[in-house]
């Protein structure tokens, strides 16, 4: 589940995180790992709410609120992912295939070393781009393979789509093709 909002409830005894479950299921008592932005903490789920009603279980494609212990306060933030421990890793480097739209749709030239703003689920992270060897520039309406080095690790998987911005403008989309270390 990607964390979309975090609420400190009950005077610090409970933290409520909201988001959509992407796959599998979650139940009260399950342990979840906070992945991304230097997470790594494993916590038990104290409650599962769907439309402000407590439920025993929530499944994929449901929007939920998960109650976590108060010690999660400050550890969990928008853009992180809650997952079964060890099932998803946080990465700061990856290779991707990107596509740039036309100039009139925000496309801009991308060169090696440029810092872009990457959007993965609800996470927003800056990163530097390295073009494939022999490529000087990617122009609007073109695509190519790039290597990205993010400023902070985020929950990533091969095949995951993302978008990116360049100088404050929507500049393109991409698919993670390989995770690197």
TrEMBL record:
Name under which the protein is recorded? Translation elongation factor EFTu/EF1A C-terminal domain-containing protein
Q: Which residues form the Translation elongation factor EFTu/EF1A C-terminal domain?
A: 88-179
- Domain of life, per lineage: Bacteria
Q: Please give the InterPro entries that the UniProt record associates with this protein.
A: EF-Tu_GTPase, Transl_B-barrel_sf, Transl_elong_EF1A/Init_IF2_C, Transl_elong_EFTu/EF1A_C
Against PANTHER family, the record matches this protein to:
ELONGATION FACTOR TU, MITOCHONDRIAL, ELONGATION FACTOR TU-RELATED
Q: Which UniProt keywords apply?
A: Elongation factor, GTP-binding, Nucleotide-binding, Protein biosynthesis
């Amino acid at each position: 589940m990607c964390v979309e909002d975090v609420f400190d409830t009950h005077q610090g005894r409970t933290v409520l995180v909201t988001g959509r479950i992407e796959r599998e299921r979650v139940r009260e008592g399950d342990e979840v790992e906070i992945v991304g932005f230097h997470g790594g903490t494993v916590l038990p789920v104290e409650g599962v709410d769907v439309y402000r009603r407590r439920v025993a279980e929530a499944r994929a494609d449901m929007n939920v609120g998960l109650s976590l212990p108060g010690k999660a306060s400050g550890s969990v933030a928008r853009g992180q992912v809650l997952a079964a421990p060890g099932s998803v890793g946080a990465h700061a480097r990856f290779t991707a295939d990107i596509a740039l739209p036309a100039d009139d749709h925000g496309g801009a030239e991308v060169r090696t070393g440029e810092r872009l703003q990457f959007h993965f689920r609800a996470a927003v992270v800056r990163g530097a781009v390295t073009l494939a060897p022999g490529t000087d520039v990617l122009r609007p309406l073109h695509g190519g393979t790039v290597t990205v080095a993010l400023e902070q690790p985020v929950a990533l998987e091969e095949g995951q789509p993302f978008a990116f911005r360049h100088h404050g403008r929507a500049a393109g989309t991409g698919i993670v093709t390989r995770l690197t270390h």
